[in-house]
Design brief:
129 residues, alpha+beta, globular
Length: 129
């Protein structure tokens, strides 16, 4: 399964979770429920994945934690806020670069309609793959 195929399943799962739970809960709640939903859909899910940072030839193990990584290919950054800002998009792009991943999604469960809370971020992923 490639990144875009996984991405379609992620979007469907996020919409299903949002429809069931609605907006306004803690990110940790959405993280647990979304992870379970993705597993039910046959995907491999890892939560709070540590991604080390390399700086001047040294590895810093306490770099950042990806909220969810799906099939070791797609990074999900979950939010439960009023609106996604540019800083959140930049943050996810940096996470993708550091982790060597090509596709990520910002999923804001704070939106009234989940479709408005989904932002797709790419890092060198060719179109149509």
């Amino acid at each position: 399964m490639n990144e875009n195929e996984i991405g379609r399943l992620v979007v469907d799962a996020a919409v299903a979770v949002h429809r069931e739970l609605g907006p306004g809960l803690l990110e940790s709640v959405y993280e647990a429920v979304l992870a379970d939903e993705l597993v039910q859909r046959g995907l491999a899910v890892a939560w709070q994945v540590m991604v080390p940072i390399s700086y001047k030839g040294k590895q810093i193990d306490d770099g950042y934690r990806a909220d969810i990584v799906v099939n070791d290919l797609v990074v999900l950054e979950l939010k439960s806020i009023e609106a996604i800002r540019d800083v959140h998009k930049k943050q996810l792009l940096t996470y993708l670069k550091l982790g060597g991943k090509k596709l990520g999604f910002l999923l804001n469960f704070g939106e009234a309609v989940m479709k408005k809370g989904i932002v797709r971020i790419v890092n060198g992923l060719p179109e149509g793959t």
